[in-house]
Amino acid sequence: MNQKHHIVFFTGAGISQESGIETFRDTNGLWHNNKIEDIASKEGFEKKPQKVLDFYNERRIKVEKVQPNLAHELIASLEDRYKVSVITQNVDDLHERAGSSNVLHLHGELNKCRSSKDASFIYPCTKPIQVGDLAEDASQLRPHIVWFGEEVTEIEKAIEITQTADLFIIIGTSMVVQPAGSLLLSVPVDAQTVYIDTNPDVEEGINLLVLKEKATDGMKQLVEDYLPY
Ligand code: APR
């Protein structure tokens, strides 16, 4: 049976960096200019809601102004030859805008907002959220983002997808944030893993190929040199 190879991409902020979106932990990254506990935590939101809303409002506006880059586009283009799943830690919609049709967001989505009381009340977010903007349950609207200390509700689904990978491609993530950072442990032993990162902090090993490259160059190399036709 001509079973299509299943390629699973696991991406982080590094894949959007060449589109002009800053990462978190590189020099001048988001977490160098903002304190995580003030900006990306429920406590921070309760203490200074408008400050937190403004942080995400600014990022949402910025993402709307940029375009997917060649790395996002090459991933999307593989769908005509392979079964492709994208598991991303990113909250931007650049994978979707590049044409990927199977994207799982582990840490939420900038272009959605939700009730701060009942997480099942989720809405498209096309304009800045202000204090006083309410959900249908009359609670304050908040970004549909997984903040530090909150449950990563999609992790089980991500593990299931990873367990069926023939090829697992990690692009542009420091893998320091858990549980996302441990997805690598769910890759089948006989699957090949490729890690594309400008500053890969891992040793190459059996079934682990490290490409110390920008996402666009690493994806070009992967498609040209490593993917069976
Ligand atoms: N191409 C490839 N890799 C890059 C590029 C690039 N152009 N630029 C940066 N990188 C790499 C860095 O070397 C680093 O390994 O991308 C990674 C970015 O790491 P982080 O800034 O830690 O971002 P990420 O791993 O996505 O963070 C995970 O942390 O704060 C939380 O919720 C947030 O989803 C985020 C999570």
UniProtKB/TrEMBL annotation:
Domain of life: Bacteria
Gene3D superfamilies: SIR2/SIRT2 'Small Domain, TPP-binding domain
A matching Pfam family: SIR2
Keywords: NAD, Transferase
Gene Ontology MF term list: histone deacetylase activity, NAD-dependent; NAD+ binding
Domain spans labelled Deacetylase sirtuin-type: 1-229
InterPro entries: DHS-like_NAD/FAD-binding_dom (IPR029035), NAD-dep_sirtuin_deacylases (IPR050134), Sirtuin (IPR003000), Sirtuin_cat_small_dom_sf (IPR026591), Ssirtuin_cat_dom (IPR026590)
Segments traversing the membrane: none
Protein EC: 2.3.1.286
Protein name: protein acetyllysine N-acetyltransferase
Species this protein is from: Oceanihabitans sediminis
